[in-house]
Amino acid sequence: MNKRNVTRLAFAIVILSFVLSTFVSLWSLRLMAQRNVQELSKSIAARINNSISAELSEPVNVSMAMAHDSFLIEAMKGEDQAGKERTEERMKEYLGSLKETFGYEAAFVISDASQYYYSYGGINKKMNPDEDVHDHWYREFVSSEKAYELDVDHDELKEDRWTVFANARIVDEEGTLLGVCGVGARMTGNQDLFFTLEREYGVTISLIDESGLIQVCTDESRIQKESLKDVLISRNDEYVYQKESSGRLAVTKYIEDPDLYLVVESGGSVERRQLVNMLILNIVLCIGVLIIMLLAVRIIIARTRALTHASFMDQSTQLLNRRAFEERKAELSMSQLEEDFVYLTADLNGLKRVNDQLGHAAGDELIKGAAVCLKECFGRYGKIYRIGGDEFAAMLHLSEAQLEEAMKALDQASERWTGQYVKGLSLSCGYALSREFPSENIAELGRISDERMYEAKQAHYRKTGNQR
Predict the structure, then answer these.
(1) What CATH superfamily classification does 36-267 receive?
(2) Mean residue pLDDT across the chain
């Protein structure tokens, strides 16, 4: 055999091997794809589930932060006293700030007492849940006694873009309902993801309710008009896989928020081009999705921490607020107090007189000055809280010598302090040490500290001759 024939034979063997390997690979891949349609559908459902959870977590966190915001709670409790116009202005400023910060489509507060629907534009309307069909949701949500709920809707006036409304209950310290607040956010990421997955994988994706009625899908003509009655659903955490009577395969997964069932329907066969593209795209998309998810999680964690931090801060003084104070007291009530624990209470002297004579700007300056002095002298030993208008508390860990030194430093800092409107400030303080009362709990130490603070305040007024 000459060289030319050997070369031809080698080329023929290589080509034949390539053709055979390609045929075997495609045939194996096709069989594997047919066998693994269930896993593929589950993978798609898992991606959608993760995407929905990621995109809906922020509106839920924001609405829950609003519901626990002391400003909003106090505004609802004081609605009658403040009056309609004042409350409307406060709500416009509050909700407008949320809309500007997060770019939401809607931000609202509904007063249960007045039934006014406040938005960043003012009072939209007065709710009428008994007669207005558009307001039935309010009565149903309040009756459910849920802390929050999610409602997915599509806006026909804006290219059928999907919107999720996160509603949360506003209650006072006794659990009495004050109203409902929430935000409306675009589900742009999930809507785009639905279209992409349906186009790339030839599947149909829907969100259905308990009865099977379609609530969300890419074909708006099916929304709330068509039901998937043959689809099996379950509220557990497992994926439910079934073959429908039409021959299509379906995977369902319950999504707690927004209390809907995800349904991914796919055909029984996939063409070779789709399989090859699927492999390539899966690698690229998986890397991309992981990166996006990682970034999304980091952003969500950062925003959640920021919101949590803000909900525990008094914005005027930058001290911890009463909510943080009560939570810390609850934590300490569950355990034995350490020997060096000190409960300190402080109250401004003469704040009312300053407000009456110099105005509330001077009073605010005095409160901020007191916070600065307390933080300067006690900040290194523990947490300081503003628990009322001119009332402060601190939970500290320090020795008796350090406490005595810090109290002297507080007196000196108060004497040195001067402001634009007020030239000095005075604080009345009381404290109780756990080593002084080793058998008492945090509540009793607080009571003793308050009593001593009031004794110091009375002594101050007797000494200065000023009426309280």
Answers:
(1) PAS domain (3.30.450.20)
(2) 82
